[in-house]
Amino acid sequence: MSNYRATATAFQTMAHEIVWCAAATVDVENRPRSRVLHPIWEWVDEELIGWIATGPTPVKLAHLEHSPHISLNYWAPSHDTCIAECASEWCTDDATKQRVWDLFTFGPAPVGYDPSIIPPWKDGPLTPTFAALQLRPWHLRVFPGTMLQTGTGELLTWTAPRP
Q1: Facing residues of 154 across strands?
Q2: CA-to-CA distance for 52 and 41, rounded, in angstroms?
Q3: What is the C-alpha to C-alpha distance for residues 104 and 112, in angstroms, rounded to an integer?
Q4: For residue 4, which of 135, 134, 140 has the smallest C-alpha distance?
Q5: Structural domain of residue 24, as residue ranges?
Q6: What are the pLDDT digits (tens) for 147-162?
Q7: pTM (2 decimals)?
Q8: Overall domain count for the chain
């Protein structure tokens, strides 16, 4: 098991380079459903927190109400992969929506972008079609593609202790 700070820092670096991830939730019958999403990660005190700017669709709302857990899997053509297993929470208050909008708007390239390019969000972060999904990882894994290609690099894995 790797150190939390080292694993989380390596995860954030790789995730922000890859940008897009497959995100999986489960429905009320515990069947998986995946979609491609674009999280951004930040340090809040000593904790890595993720944010997804997304629409609160009926499917996402139902899945995360049934189980608030989400699995994120990033992959690059170099075979760099990183995974975050997270607890999630919808944040629909105006202040958080504005803050998350600004994280993306002023975020570093390539993870930063202007959310108003998404047609339902053209009127800004206070529209009801925009929500912030907060992510709190309980498991992180960082696998550099060089481990497959040349046998070099280091696999980092961290799992939060169970209460």
Answers
A1: none
A2: 9
A3: 5
A4: 140
A5: 4-159
A6: 999 999 999 999 999 8
A7: 0.95
A8: 1
- CA 58 vs CA 16, 64, 69, 121, 149: distances in Å: 28, 10, 16, 17, 42
Give the Cα separation of 112 and 134 in Å (integer): 17
Query: Is the pLDDT confidence value at 1 over 80?
Result: no
Beta-carbon contacts of residue 54 (< 8 Å; ≥ 6 apart): 37, 60, 131, 132, 133
Q: What are phi and psi of 52, to 5 degrees?
A: -120, 125
Rg (CA), the chain: 16
Separation CA 13–CA 9 (nearest Å)? 6
* CATH (domain of 88): 2.30.110.10
Predicted local distance difference test score (pLDDT) of residue 162? 83
Token pair in block for residue 145: 């593609």
d(Cα 141, Cα 15) in Å, to the nearest integer?
11
Phi, psi values for residue 128, rounded to 5°: -70, -10
Q: Which residues, 6 or more positions from 68, have their beta carbon under 8 angstroms from its beta carbon?
A: 87, 88, 89
